[in-house]
Amino acid sequence: MQQKPLIQLKDIYKTYTTGAVSYEALKGITLHIDSGEYVAILGPSGSGKSTLMQIIGCLSTPSSGSYLLDGKEVSQLNRNELAKIRNQKVGFVFQNFNLLAQLDIVDNVALPLLYRGTALAERRRLAKEILKKLGLENHYKHHPNELSGGQKQRVAIARALVASPEIILADEPTGNLDTQSGNDVIQLFEQFTSEGKTVIVVTHDLEIAKRAKRIIHIQDGKIAN
Ligand SMILES: Nc1ncnc2c1ncn2[C@@H]1O[C@H](COP(=O)(O)OP(=O)(O)O)[C@@H](O)[C@H]1O
Ligand SMILES: [Mg+2]
Fold it and tell me: 67 pairs with which residues across the strands?
């Protein structure tokens, strides 16, 4: 029997409506991604990459179309149901890091475990373990504003990983980094796929995209390749 893809999108549309104005950001996306794949989504600004990632990551739902995640239809779920699946399966890395300034990096990284009900001591233990793996063991007490861009992005990656999600989604994770830090981050993603995780990276940088096993080109809300 053939393995079912982890992510199956079929004819996905997304329309944003602001007042009387509607904008069709996705126009019929059909896409399969297998478990353990490392995929780059490449396309110009405004082409719908973030919209697509938000749907894949269960942060939003499509206006129409079907999305089977691990065989389960998730396109029509309500906010709470969606949040539950997201917490179980997805780790997100954002371009602007989205770290909380008032928390030290251990508590920043531990945050997803709070939503899972893990006890404080265990949350901090797991957060330190993953921060150490990412070379940040000398910064536990530091707050985000005391770190460089590359370090902040590694903290954001640690937070995405701490709850051991199957799927790691990164939306322009190297957009705010210098070339060296960007390469380090991409190398980390390569390492995750060798550990069996599914990694999807959005970028508008062809050099970054080329390092993935597969490139999906998005243009004007459609798949272009
Ligand atoms: N919340 C929103 N409300 C209205 N329009 C939006 C919203 N989010 C994105 N858009 C529009 O949808 C299009 C695709 O946006 P986005 O998915 O962010 O593209 P990308 O990530 O490729 O730059 C853009 O034209 C953008 O202005
Ligand atoms: Mg975007």
Answer: 9
pTM of structure: 0.92
What string of pLDDT tens digits covers the 225 residues of the chain?
456 799 999 999 999 999 999 999 999 999 999 999 999 999 999 999 999 999 999 999 999 999 999 999 999 999 999 999 998 999 999 888 999 999 999 999 999 999 888 999 999 999 999 999 889 999 999 999 999 999 999 999 999 999 989 999 999 998 888 888 888 888 888 888 888 999 999 998 888 899 999 999 999 999 996
Does residue 182 lie within any of the structural domains?
yes
Note whether 153 and 183 are within 8 A (CB): no
168 CA from centroid of ligand 2 (Å): 16
In the chain, DSSP assigns E strands to 7-18, 21-33, 38-42, 64-69, 72-73, 90-94, 167-171, 198-203, 214-219, 222-223
Q: How far is the CA of 27 from the centre of ligand 1 (A)?
A: 13
- Which two structure tokens, joined as six digits, stand for 210? 């080329």
Distance CA 90, CA 15 (A): 24
Within a domain: 205: yes
Whether residue 1 is contained in a domain is answered as: no
Total structural domains in the chain? 1
Specify the CATH number for the domain of residue 171. Answer: 3.40.50.300
Query: In this structure, what DSSP letter does residue 60 have?
Result: S
Closest protein CA for atom 26 of ligand 1: 46
